[in-house]
Amino acid sequence: xxxxxxxxxxxxxxxxxxxxxxxxxxxxxxxxxxxxxxxxxxxxxxxxxxxxxxxxxxxxxxxxxxxxxxxxxxxxxxxxxxxxxxxxxxxxxxxxxxxxxxxxxxxxxxxxxxxxxxxxxxxxxxxxxxxxxxxxxxxxxxxxxxxxxxxxxxxxxxxxxxxxxxxxxxxxxxxxxxxxxxxxxxxxxxxxxxxxxxxxxxxxxxxxxxxxxxxxxxxxxxxxxxxxxxxxxxxxxxxxxxxxxxxxxxxxxxxxxxxxxxxx
Length: 264
Hints:
23% helix, 4-stranded antiparallel sheet, 264 residues, alpha/beta, Rossmann fold, 7-stranded mixed sheet
């Protein structure tokens, strides 16, 4: 008998296989030559992007077929690169929570000290709960946690913890998926929605402003269209079985956001 908790895992495997099942790059270009052409700022690929099949629906022009970067990775890369260009990161200590392969190599080569943490991932420096970090006050110059807080029950405590371990003049970059106008808190984690405990809205960044001295939110339209940083997703079909609490949203092209938080 199939256990209920195994069904989401099977669904994610199927979606992952669909997203990775692409022909070699030259053939992909040929088969998709009629599609709109874009440029990946991470690997410098130019050509059509692949569509993504996810729990919230299909997304057009989402995946760079060369390096696998998604819309959020490309936007975050551009924002982080701009932030680091104005900081002497070679003399800084960084904490990367739930580290992504896209950024690990870049951070490791740029920062004086680079450390990773997560509660469940293997191969990190610290097994740590973001709601109760095992670090002293003012430990890190730079903290990065992408698409993490929507999984954490007490996100206010987690944000306070990030601010606590951040040094004066430090920076924290804490993106979450913005999928509605006003944040919706779930009664429990939704296993069909990758374990999310909330649907963050455009108001979510107010939580950061309560803990940091300045918050600058960078949107998809801050950078050239050629990088394709928008979410092409039909959200008028929400709610769905997978996302039963997400309200419908107008349009099929949505902005993504990267909040940059400063501590004075």
